[in-house]
Design a protein that fits this description.
alpha/beta, 249 residues, magnesium, metal-binding, binds magnesium ion, disordered N terminus, seven-stranded mixed beta sheet, GTP-binding, binds guanosine-5'-triphosphate, nucleotide-binding, 27% helix
C-alpha cells in the first residue's frame, strides 16, 4: 500500500450527490441497451486510413448540416462526444467512435463527412467522395448505413445516388449492408408534417424510415433498437417497430 497517499478530505462539494431512493422503495430496472461508455477512437482524412476493422460498424451519412453528428450524440446520450455546428462542413474526416451498452454489446459508429456542400473546391470534393465511397465499398464490417434526410426537404438527388451506390457497390464477400433512412429535425415541422414526410420517403424508397429529432429525442429509442437488431442479428426482447398493423386472423 502506498503510505504516502493521504486519504482525501471529505468535503460536502466532493463527488456526485447520492441519488435519492425512489419513493416507493423499489429499484428502477436498468436498461440493458443503454450506452454506458462512448469514446472517440480514430479518424481518417483523404490519404490516411482507419484502423483495421474489428467489429460491426454503423455509419451515418447525409448532406452537410443535416444533423449526423448531432444524431450520434443523441443516440449515445453524450452531448459533446461529436463536434457539431450551425455551418455546413463541420465534419471533415471519417470519425470512428466506440459505444458499449450496459449488456456488453459494443459497436463502432462512423460519422461521415457530409455531401452536397458547394463551398468546397472540386478537388476537395473529389478527394472526400473517394474517401467515403472507398469506405462504403470496402469496409467488410459495415453492417448498417443510416442515411439522414432533412424531414423538411425529403429525399434529394444526392441521397438517391448514395442509396443506389450502396446497393450496387455491395461486395459479394461481405455481409449485406442494411440501409436505414432517418428523417431528422422533425421538431422543426411538428408531428403531423413529420409523419407525412416519413410516409412519403418510405413510399418512394420502399424502406423503413424513422422520424427523428436530436432536440426532443424523438425516434432515438426506436432507431437504437433497430440498429442493435440489425447489427447483432438477434431479435430484441421487446418489439421496436410500432407502426406495423397486426396480420388479420
Ligand atoms: N432543430 C434541430 N436542429 C438540429 C437537429 N439536428 C441537428 N441540428 C442542428 O443542425 C446543425 C448541424 O448539425 P450537425 O450535427 O453538425 O450536422 P452534420 O450533418 O454533422 O454536419 P456536417 O458535419 O457539416 O456534415 C447544428 O446547428 C445542430 O444543432 C434536430 O434534430 N433538430
Ligand atoms: Mg458532422
Amino acid at each position: 500500500m502506498n503510505q504516502k497517499t493521504k486519504p482525501a478530505k471529505k468535503t460536502p462539494a466532493a463527488g456526485p450527490k447520492p441519488k435519492a431512493a425512489p419513493a416507493d422503495g423499489k429499484k428502477k430496472a436498468l436498461d440493458p441497451k443503454q450506452i454506458v461508455h462512448a469514446d472517440f477512437l480514430a479518424a481518417a482524412a483523404p490519404g490516411s486510413s482507419l484502423p483495421a476493422p474489428t467489429m460491426a460498424e454503423i455509419a451515418f451519412a447525409g448532406r452537410s448540416n443535416v444533423g449526423k453528428s448531432s444524431l450520434i450524440n443523441t443516440l449515445v446520450e453524450r452531448k459533446g462526444l461529436v463536434r457539431t455546428g450551425a455551418t455546413p462542413g463541420v465534419t471533415r474526416q471519417i470519425n470512428l467512435f466506440e459505444a458499449r451498452a450496459r449488456d456488453g454489446a459494443t459497436f463502432h459508429l462512423i460519422d461521415l463527412p457530409g455531401y452536397g456542400y458547394a463551398k468546397r473546391s472540386k478537388a476537395e470534393r473529389t478527394a472526400w467522395g473517394d474517401l467515403i465511397e472507398g469506405y462504403l465499398r470496402g469496409r467488410i464490417t459495415l453492417a448498417a448505413l443510416v442515411i439522414l434526410v432533412d424531414a423538411r426537404r425529403g429525399l434529394e438527388e444526392d441521397d438517391l445516388e448514395l442509396i443506389q451506390f450502396v446497393e450496387e457497390a455491395r461486395d459479394v464477400q461481405r455481409r449485406p449492408v442494411e440501409i436505414v433512412i432517418v428523417a431528422t429535425k422533425a421538431d422543426k415541422i411538428g408531428r403531423s408534417a413529420s409523419r407525412s414526410a416519413v410516409a412519403a420517403i418510405a413510399k418512394s424508397t420502399g424502406r423503413k424510415v424513422i422520424g427523428f429529432s436530436s432536440v426532443t429525442g424523438e425516434g432515438r429509442a426506436e432507431l437504437w433498437a433497430l440498429l442493435r437488431k440489425v447489427t447483432l442479428g438477434t431479435p430484441e426482447a421487446t418489439p421496436v417497430v410500432k407502426d406495423q398493423e397486426p396480420e388479420p386472423a
